[in-house]
Amino acid sequence: VLFRLHRSAAEEPHILLECDSSVLDSIQKHLKLYKIRRKVTITPCPDLSLWAVIPGEQPGDTSSLPKCADQALLLTPDPRAEVMGWRLIAKKGANLSEIIPGSQVGDVQDYHRHRYKQGIPEGVKDLPPGVALPLESNLAFMNGISFTKGCYIGQELTARTHHMGVIRKRLLPVSFPGPLPAAGIPEGAEILTQAGKRAGRFRAGGGELGIALLRLAHLHEPLCIQLPGDRVELRATTPQWWPKAAAK
């Protein structure tokens, strides 16, 4: 996720890039590779902290949030989907109750459960580098792909697939209604239909919720994962925030 800090074209550009902390070094090396003599400084920001502000039962009312308080560097709607609420960036140690009065600090697992329930991928487990394709990962639904900007690596294939409208697999939220194995569901586990056909693969999750890359043709079928000595049932759903024709 990218955040622009400068307010006008006349100001010197300042961009914050939110990334998976496990790939911080590799992303810096990748960006520096494409600087090509530009006067661009790329540095991590260890003095900043990132918060997800998850809405309550009535999401989407951005007017209910205060303007950026003194302690907040940025407070903005999450650009991926309305159901994800807001992104808050503040100095480490900032008093969150002053920035957002009445808010409660939750556990990071609460955040992951919320986004898995909504089918929002994030980080290298959900989006493995070199494996995850942008359209199959629903990035076109989350302001993650431009079809007017050119060119970028993979632009031709991505644009052609988009305009043809043939996307057979997508990341979908999945749930496990029954008891789970003590070791959980392994990442990359193959998902099968009841008839034994390959339907996709489990990417990642937490508890009874997760995200999986599935063939849309099997979306409404009973699905399962066959583990050594165990068979786990799961259900896939289409997120309500998707465009209506997306799962067709």
Topology:
Layout: E1 2-4, E2 15-17, H1 24-33, E3 48-53, E4 72-77, E5 86-91, H2 96-99, H3 108-118, H4 123-126, H5 155-164, E6 169-175, E7 190-193, E8 198-206, E9 209-215, E10 223-227, E11 230-236
Antiparallel strand pairs: 1-2, 3-5, 4-5, 6-9, 6-11, 7-8, 7-10, 8-9, 10-11
GO biological process, one term: iron-sulfur cluster assembly
GO molecular function: transferase activity
Organism: Motacilla alba
In spatial order, strands of the major sheet run 6-9-8-7-10-11
Number of helices: 5
Radius of gyration: 20 Å
> Considering DSSP H and I runs of 4 or more, what fraction of the residues is helical?
10-25%
Structural class: alpha+beta
Q: Please, what is the average pLDDT? A: 87
In total, how many domains does the architecture comprise? 2
Number of strands: 11
Poorly predicted regions are: 59-63
Largest sheet: 6 strands, antiparallel, barrel
What's the shape?
A: globular
The run of helices and strands is: EEHEEEHHHHEEEEEE
Strand content: 25-35%
Terminal Cα span: 28 Å
GO molecular function: transferase activity
Subcellular location: Mitochondrion
Keywords: Mitochondrion, Transferase, Transit peptide
Organism: Motacilla alba (White wagtail)
What does this structure look like?
The protein has 248 residues and is an alpha+beta fold. It folds into 2 domains: 2-118, no CATH class; 134-236, Elongation Factor Tu (Ef-tu), domain 3 (Beta Barrel). The protein is 16% helix and 25% strand. The chain is built from 5 helices and 11 strands, in the order ββαβββααααββββββ. The strands form 3 sheets. The protein has a 6-stranded antiparallel barrel. A 3-stranded antiparallel sheet has the order 3-5-4, with no helix packed on it. Strands 1-2 form a two-stranded antiparallel sheet. Strand 4 (72-77) and strand 5 (86-91) form a beta hairpin. The longest helix has 11 residues, at 108-118. The chain is globular. The protein starts with a strand and ends in a 12-residue tail after the last strand. Mean pLDDT is 87; it is low at 59-63.
